[in-house]
């Protein structure tokens, strides 16, 4: 396992991942301020002021070294426009070598494969350069788009926790998906 790992831009065929910047505020607020986008997130739609705080906080996280460290890079289309964010949190280092992956995509960018391409870039990084053994995703199982993306990525459904948490004035379930290093390598 190669730690610490410092974030650097990652470029794919149609998307790029790089650090969030102050000039991303309007686009990020359009995403995180949308109640429909936040329906299955752990937070309600955010005010512009809250998004500014989150942007500053998340932009500062650029290194994975210890469990709990995370990076939340901007997901950009070919024009450089912010269309979402990705999330990668180191859950454990040696010997377990696990992380959690997540994503948030603007409604205008959905259905084009951008998030799937970005997730594949992150999984290549996780199982290649960083040397992780396992990457998992936790999500609201009512989020059909995220469930479908986990399946496209080759992640296995490992669990469904019924009424796992009280969130937004209701009991919500949590779905768990994961993929192992050897499974990702076999897909290539």
Task: Give your account of this protein's structure.
This protein is an alpha+beta fold. The chain has one domain (5-187): Aminopeptidase (3-Layer(aba) Sandwich). 28% of the residues lie in helices and 33% in strands. The chain contains 5 helices and 11 strands, in the order E-E-E-H-H-E-E-E-E-E-H-E-H-E-E-H. The chain has helices at 25-32, 48-59, 114-130, 144-152, 181-187, and strands spanning 5-6, 10-11, 16-18, 63-64, 70-71, 74-76, 82-92, 98-105, 134-139, 156-167, 170-180. The strands form 2 sheets. Strands 2, 3, 5, 6, 7, 8, 9, 10 and 11 form a 9-stranded mixed sheet that branches. Helix 1 packs across helix 2. The longest helix has 17 residues, at 114-130. It is globular and about 40 Å long. The chain starts with a strand and ends with a helix. The model has no long low-confidence stretch (mean pLDDT 96).
